[in-house]
Specification:
heterodimer, A: alpha+beta, 3-methyladenine DNA Glycosylase II, Chain A, domain 3, Alpha-Beta Plaits, 3 domains, elongated
Chain lengths: ~270, ~200
């Protein structure tokens, strides 16, 4: 009995002191700022900064490889805190959110064939250009929803992704996840969007989608600020010029220009 | 008992995860991706080999002479946990690259039942020192084999059209059970190999 207690105590003490000595001898000094920045980061490990997780970004920020505002997901709040820790200045930028530039849900853009493969946009687009008639639009399988680390995207009943602006951090993960490049980042204050991604000519677009851009150029003529330009049969809004006036929204014959002004999403057919 | 028999037994016939049902938590927890599963497997091989060697020494130089074999479990936990902590510190200091690859998994498995299991089985089977080390190495390789196979299955399951109620962990548990049943096929291996 006594032996047992003694030996167990001795073994415990021996290993305890070994670890104590080792922790001194093999101590690795870590910059305290790394820990401080890690605390300030959102901690979602989304990878938008290009580093494997928030810890990787914190180390890169301390060593000066990335600027203090490199964490897009955190926004200006986090940027300011990191800048304070590092003792540098940051320039304020407007918050960007994801914009889905396609209005062709199941009701507007019909299918060419029935797809029963892997429920993933990447996989679907590889099969004969995807099951939808339009080869530029949203496939509706929600790869962007799964890519979002912040629960800011959901699929509506029309199988179109919807972005919850308040939750979107602008990390850009969904932009990369979309094989059709339907999602773009835009300043949060710009509320008029041309929700079409088709580069096809007007008659072709008309066949595959009821709300596609048919390249009529009425919006270009209407816009007083010359914010809309044309390229590859598709109208595009220059967000730096647009002032949300909404004249083009009323003019568009296929209603593919929408305005989210007043916090109201124009949920077509949803 | 020959070394070949020990290796075949620990990897296939008495696979730690799929036949002895030890080390289930890292098996389920770290098998989402092939890369992390491989890292986990490497860490387990390392710790199991190390634990087999050190616990054999403690058992035969300290516990047996003093008639304290009944303290195995307590002493083994103490010894393995401290040792792995120590090795982790050394690796962090001397080889940051190895620490990045292995280090994060080490604390998770220090007091894992599979690690303690291999130490206790070594003692119960009355293995000599080298046999113990080989058994530890083979047991770790068996774990690695199981977790890598399982991670491959789970990566495909992610893309499969699983019923909503079975998504995630439930379907993983079902697959693990099926893998275990498959490994039952090795049960009679020795009759063909060694008779």
């Amino acid at each position: 009995m006594l032996e047992a207690v003694l030996i167990l105590t001795a073994v415990g003490a021996a290993f305890g002191s070994l670890l104590a000595v080792a922790s001194q001898k093999f101590a690795v000094t870590v910059d305290p700022r790394v820990e401080a920045i890690k605390e300030a980061l959102p901690g979602a490990n989304c990878g938008a900064c290009g580093y494997p997780g928030c810890a990787g970004f914190a180390e890169a920020a301390v060593s000066g490889v990335v600027p203090a505002d490199g964490c897009t997901a955190g926004g200006s709040d986090v940027s300011r805190r990191i800048a304070a820790i590092l003792g540098v200045e940051v320039v304020e930028r407007e918050r960007e959110v994801a914009r889905v530039l396609c209005g062709g849900g199941d009701r507007q853009a019909p299918f060419r064939f029935e797809y029963s493969g892997i429920q993933d946009c990447q996989a679907a687009t590889l099969l004969a250009g995807g099951p939808k008639g339009c080869t530029y639009g949203c496939l509706g399988m929600g790869s962007c929803v799964r890519a979002c680390a912040f629960d800011a995207i959901y699929m509506d009943r029309n199988r179109l992704p919807r972005v919850v602006e308040d939750r979107c951090t602008g990390c850009g993960k969904c932009v990369k996840a979309c094989p059709r490049r339907v999602i773009v980042m835009g300043p949060v204050s710009r509320q008029v969007h041309i929700v079409c991604n088709s580069r096809d000519r007007g008659p072709v677009v008309r066949k595959v989608c009821t709300v596609g851009c048919i390249a009529c150029r009425l919006c270009v003529k209407e816009c007083p600020r010359e914010a809309i330009t044309f390229e590859d049969n598709l109208a595009r809004i220059d967000y730096t010029r647009c002032d949300n006036c909404g004249l083009c929204v009323a003019k568009c014959p296929t209603k593919c220009i929408v305005s989210t002004a007043g916090g109201m999403e124009v949920a077509r057919g949803a | 008992m020959s070394f070949v028999a020990i290796v075949v037994s620990s990897i296939l016939v008495n696979n730690f995860v799929l036949m002895r049902f030890l080390g289930i938590c890292p098996f389920l927890g770290v098998s989402r991706q092939l890369a992390t599963a491989t890292g986990m497997g490497a860490a387990v091989v390392f710790v199991m080999t190390l634990a087999s060697a050190i616990t054999w020494v403690f058992h035969h130089t300290l516990l047996v002479p003093f008639g304290l074999a009944y303290l195995q479990t307590v002493v083994f936990i103490l010894v393995i946990a401290s040792l792995v902590q120590f090795v982790e510190m050394v690796i962090q200091k001397t080889s940051p690259a190895l620490y990045q690859a292995l280090g994060i998994y080490l604390p998770i498995i220090t007091t894992n039942c599979a690690i303690l299991g291999v130490a206790l089985i070594n003692v119960r089977q009355d293995y000599a020192f080298l046999e113990s080390v080989v058994n530890g190495l083979a047991a770790g390789m068996g774990f690695t084999l199981a977790i890598i196979l399982f991670a491959g299955v789970r990566e495909r399951l992610e893309l499969a059209d699983t019923p909503a109620a079975l998504k995630g962990v439930p379907i993983a548990l079902v697959s693990a059970g099926l893998m275990s049943v498959a490994f039952f096929g090795f049960q009679n291996l020795f009759r063909f190999l060694f008779s």
